Amino acid sequence: MSSAWLLPEHIADVLPAEARRIEELRRQWLDLARGYGFELVMPPLLEHLESLLSGTGRELSLKTFKLVDQLSGRTLGLRADTTPQAARIDAHLLNREGVTRLCYCGPVLHTRPSGLYSTREQLQFGAEIFGHAGLEAELEVQELALGGLQAAGVPQLTIDLGDARIVRSVLAGALLDGEALTELVAALTAKDGSTVRAMAARCPAETREGLVALLDLYGGEEVLESAGRLLPARSPIQAALADLAWLTGHLRRAYPEVQIGFDLSDMSGYAYYSGVRFAIYGGGSADALARGGRYDEIGAVFGRNRPAVGFSVIDLKNLAALVPAGPARAAIRAPWAEDDGLRSMIRTLRSQGETVVCILPGHEQETEEFDCDRELTQVDGHWLVRAL
């Protein structure tokens, strides 16, 4: 018999000290995004399934919890990613002309964990720019992502760049059905050379040579030069390589301490990427802390197929565990009494932004996560704050 207090696998409570740190990160990210001009939206956790999954591919569908609406009988989904919702809001509710910048921060739920110690309930922050097709939008979201992770205190940041147009252009000549293409792209991402070579054997020579070359096209800036020589001379590939070079130059000037790498066969993430994509690592974590890129086609199903680019911090809870914990919040310790002067003083201090921990009778030593470096004490009939 299971105990009533046990939670489902890969689901956990967040206790006070960790919850405070996560909330500080959430506020930090939202304030930073506001400084760039992003507007906050709060999409619902629950939506009609076809809206949540439109244009996102099979991978997101597998991660999405599904249930039946008791009111309508329709199938609903618990969101596993917020980007499709932001696209729906931009296309259907706001329907603005020109550029729209939206950000959000809320939970997402996954049917399965991404790793042995991963949670199935992540707290996702994201930012999306709609309405601009130029690289300036890519650069803005990359700078926001790097700036936010630096502000959070994540050391040794690395950004890996790629472009969905490269893999798609190489595969343009592949005579494979949809399921086989999905398998091949997964093998490319995993650098599974034997599978890639076996499946490439059924493709034309130029495609086969391009697929094999992609397996080794990861590393530093030399990758861009090698790709120009080894991949088919197709205009989408050449445009993608030029875009990656342009972004690299700007990122090096803005963030000289950040390591920049390339992985031209990596198609991790959902199927909606249509151009430049990136992943950011740091803090000794083997998994990406943030992912993003261009996904121009995702709004089409909502009646407005316009340019879009964005990123998400995959899980603020995981991020909080990677950065150094800050000092305990300074607080004032106050006794509990019915004295009107004391009660008035406590209210005044709290209205001024101070944390005042009122010690309840019989619990004089309990202040938990707060650093009570001062106390309220009565001197000559007046309540004063003094240092401890």
Beta-strand segment tally:
16
Largest sheet properties: 9 strands, mixed
| Physical arrangement of strands within the biggest beta sheet | 1-5-6-12-11-10-7-9-8
Beta-strand percentage? 15-25%
Rg value = 25 Å
Average pLDDT reading: 90
Question: How far from one another are the termini?
Answer: 51 Å
Structural class: alpha+beta
For this structure, the quaternary state is single chain
Task: Explain this structure.
It is built from 13 helices and 16 strands. Strand 3 and strand 4 form a beta hairpin. Strands 1-5-6-12-11-10-7-9-8 form a nine-stranded mixed sheet, with helices on both faces. With 388 residues, it is an alpha+beta fold. Belongs to the class-II aminoacyl-tRNA synthetase family. HisZ subfamily. This is ATP phosphoribosyltransferase regulatory subunit. Pathway: Amino-acid biosynthesis; L-histidine biosynthesis; L-histidine from 5-phospho-alpha-D-ribose 1-diphosphate: step 1/9.
